[in-house]
Specification:
This protein is of the alpha+beta class. It folds into two domains: 84 residues, Beta Barrel (Elongation Factor Tu (Ef-tu), domain 3); 144 residues, Threonyl-trna Synthetase, Chain A, domain 2 (Threonyl-tRNA Synthetase, Chain A, domain 2). The protein is built from four helices and 15 strands. The strands form four sheets. Strands 2-3-7-6-5-8 form a six-stranded antiparallel beta barrel. The radius of gyration is 19 Å and the shape is elongated.
């Protein structure tokens, strides 16, 4: 399996690695800074170099043997050493967006006890759906103000891995309406915004809420009687 360096340090932008498998769809590395996507966060993009060749990483796909790095040219041979570099501007924008959604989730769970029914993010924007009956312009403005207060509070963001049984002793660890954590996962990654939010999550995040930066709620929609959507933008 690929060692996930993005979990050891989400701010790491480059690494050296060795090719452990190669196929028509891409290569698998023994270690990688490329996040393979999940939980609404897209996979990283960037560059992999070996010898005189430089390839663009156009996608990362999760697989049973490790993360498959999809390249725009034929990949290096098994056993070859490579240099990896992510598109940091893109990654950091997604880290900001993911942390902003955690703030949104934390505020709405704390104040309204509403579960998450879906989420998706991209560079500069994101959306999150909640199990709520009411959603209007006044409510979205109120949520924006509460979220901005948490950003300005400069709350520390941490992560750690816990044994599954220990993790599930944490109250309200799963904030989604349906528990999407596969039963085969024996260790659970827990992300905490200290003083606001604590939940199971597999994405990458900024180290402090103030790093989210400029944040706005830019839209709200009803997706059903008990399914309401908030859209956010990050400048």
């Amino acid at each position: 399996m690929t060692v996930p360096l993005y979990y050891e340090d989400a701010y790491s932008t480059a690494c050296e690695a060795r090719v452990v498998a190669r196929g028509d769809d891409g290569i698998i590395l023994d270690r990688s800074v490329f996040y393979p996507g999940g939980g609404g966060q897209p996979s990283d993009r960037g560059i992999i170099r070996w010898g005189e060749t430089e390839a663009r990483v156009t996608d990362i796909r999760r697989g049973p043997a490790g993360a498959v790095h999809v390249l725009d040219v034929p990949g290096p041979a098994v056993g070859e050493s490579v240099e990896c570099a992510i598109d940091w501007a893109r990654r950091h924008a997604l880290m900001r967006a993911h942390t902003a959604l955690h703030i949104l989730c934390g505020v709405i769970w704390r104040d309204f006890k509403a579960s998450v029914t879906g989420a998706q993010m991209e560079v500069g924007a994101a959306r999150m759906d909640f199990e709520l009956e009411r959603m209007d312009a006044e409510f979205s403005r109120d949520i924006e103000a509460r979220a901005l207060a948490e950003i300005e509070a400069s709350r520390v963001v941490t992560s750690r891995d816990l044994p599954r049984d220990e993790a599930f002793e944490i109250p309200d660890l799963i904030r989604t309406r349906i528990n999407l954590l596969p039963p085969g996962i024996i260790r659970v990654r827990v992300v905490e915004i200290v003083g606001l939010d604590l939940q199971a999550d597999g994405g990458t995040h900024v180290a402090n809420t103030r790093h989210v930066g400029a944040f706005r709620v830019v839209g709200h929609e009803s997706k059903g009687r008990l399914n309401k959507r908030l859209r956010i933008a990050l400048d």
